[in-house]
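seq as requested:
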Amino acid sequence: MPVIEELQAEAPALTALRRDIHAHPELCFQEVRTADVVAKALEGWGIEVHRGLGTTGVVGVLRNGSSPRAIGLRADMDALPMTEHNTFAHASKHVGKMHACGHDGHTAMLLAAAQELARTRRFDGTVYLVFQPAEEGGGGAREMIKDGLFERFPMDAIYGMHNWPGLPEGSFSVCKGPTMASSNEFRITITGKGSHAALPHNGIDPVPVACQMVQAFQTIVTRNKKPTDAAVISVTMIHTGEATNVVPDACEIQGTVRTFTLDVLDMIERRMGEITQHTAAAFGATARFEFRRNYPPTINHDAEVDVLREVMREVVGPAQTLDFDPTMGAEDFSFFLQKKPGAYFMIGNGDGAHREAYAGHDHGHNLGPCTLHNPNYDFNDRLIPVGGSLWVRLAERFLAPA
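struct tokens:
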């Protein structure tokens, strides 16, 4: 059961829609135009539309038959706050905003499936088409849940798909259990006592305190957690000082922590706090430790992965159905999976060769790295009928008549 022929036939129109969204990127909770495009398309296919969940979210409801069972299919809609380097016709029209993660393509793939499901209706139950805002740091999934997503649209499971550069074009990849990590941020403010740099004994220098802390944090990873547990502590910013001949009053450290389990996260937060306070005290300084939990780990459910793998094999074959190597990146689909069974999976975006059609001065594509969150990125439009077919077959399998 390969890619659906009707979706191949609709590919040019869906590609044009994807590129229109790419040209008009909107940041988290600002996806008004994008939501309008989505809602108009769904309504044109006779699909019931609900708007406003999580501020700008859209939910399409497609019912058929009499079964009470329901499945949720999710696509994210927001762009990133970065400037695009490409200059092709559908490049971003807004400086400082870019679809550099493929959410435009995710939206197009789910719209492709919506059109086909509305046309064929070979399922018994309800398909909820969840177009989510604010995945890029805004926690749009959490906000949709707060607005009653699962109460208003009760579903038995929910699935999410993301394109993945580097995986073979049109392949699918999934794993059981943890697939993406939690995302958390920390900020430490060390307060010492400023002095002349030639007279350091008159002050308390916060800089060596910060250096000691940065080194000590890595011992949490190597000595406090089990070696078989995954975790990353990354200090990414140290800010201090205004002049070369002045010992500063204060120093600020910032960074991120990523784990696959909440137990490991709890331990890391506790140990970082202890090291912060005791290290500062040992030097006669004081410190304030702030830790903010953003997204929890994305943990797939075994039974839903099994169903998904079967559908993947039907659509692209066993050779193109791959095991995903979990990544320490984060995804707010995790909030959905805390509430409902489901799975988050990848569709291969290829290695960037699809951009050769744009290559050259006349077409304006910068053939730099085609990786996520890169100013040269562009979604591979050849995936639209492939991803759309997967969504259709998954809904049909999940809601197969008894």
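The mean pLDDT is 96.
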